[in-house]
Amino acid sequence: MARHPDAPAWGEITRRGLLGAALGGTTLAAAAVPALARDTRNEVPLDQVTPTFFGPQEWALLIAIVDVFIPADGDGPGALEAGVPVFIDRQMAGFWGQSEWWYMEGPHHPDADPNLGFQSPLTLAEIIRGGLSHFDDWCRDQHGAAFAELGAEDRNKALGALMDEKTGLPPELRDFPDFLLTSTKQGYFSDPRHGGNRGMLAWSYIGYPGARANFLSWTNPARDAEPYPLGPVSINGDRA
């Protein structure tokens, strides 16, 4: 998927800009909760999770990539702390990854102009799996090691090349970088029932109230400048 000509270069994307874009341009809440909402130390570490869709090497690669997309050294939770790889694994194993709701009949012309829309004959899961394999092979050729084995500087360079469409992806996999980044952002901000946003950490970070059912007391315009004091609630009723 071709980048918009006005889009910033990969190195110019800031953490706040990435998260803001994931919210459709919504301004991050000025009164965002500074402390993380729930103790997640009892969560199963990602390296001990048995993924449903990904194999061990794919899992290690996915963990390394999303850690670069949303690192833990910012002013909010990182992608790994929020359990983003678990979300992506569940999505790829389910109906969404299998493209059950997509129109997948031919003809397919993967090398057609990107402005004509999605043209790959592959499902989302096949694109993610094929893209991960291609990218790791590219890293071995260009950097001498698999992505997960690279140092921080080389990881940034390699992922930058991927996002800037410089890794030679075949036409049927050309949407891989955008699909993977989109899945990362979706996992970061999803309801925790889907595997990501553990403890509603991302919601707490941006001050999002979650699935609260009633905001009637906050519809008074006189309260517009008043910070919303209540933490987020998940779809199943858990509170941060």
Helix content: 25-40%
Main sheet: strands, sense, barrel? none
Question: What's the number of extended β-strand segments?
Answer: 0
Number of helices: 7
Give the overall pLDDT as a whole number: 85
Radius of gyration: 19 Å
Distance between the termini: 37 Å
Order of helices and strands: HHHHHHH
Count of structural domains: 1
Structural class: mainly alpha
Low-confidence stretches: 1-8, 19-41
Residue fraction in strands: under 5%
Shape by Cα distribution? globular
Description:
- The protein is an all-alpha fold and 240 residues long.
- The protein has one domain (10-105, 115-223).
- The chain has seven helices and no strands.
- The chain has helices at 15-22, 56-69, 84-93, 124-143, 152-163, 176-189, 201-206.
- The radius of gyration is 19 Å and the shape is globular.
- 30% of the residues are buried.
What is the structure about, briefly put?
Helix content is about 35%, strand content about 0%.
Considering the chains and any ligands shown, give keywords for the structure.
disordered N terminus, 240 residues, Gluconate 2-dehydrogenase gamma chain
Topology:
Layout: H1 15-22, H2 56-69, H3 84-93, H4 124-143, H5 152-163, H6 176-189, H7 201-206
Protein name: Gluconate 2-dehydrogenase gamma chain
Organism: Pontibaca methylaminivorans
Pfam family, one: Gluconate_2-dh3
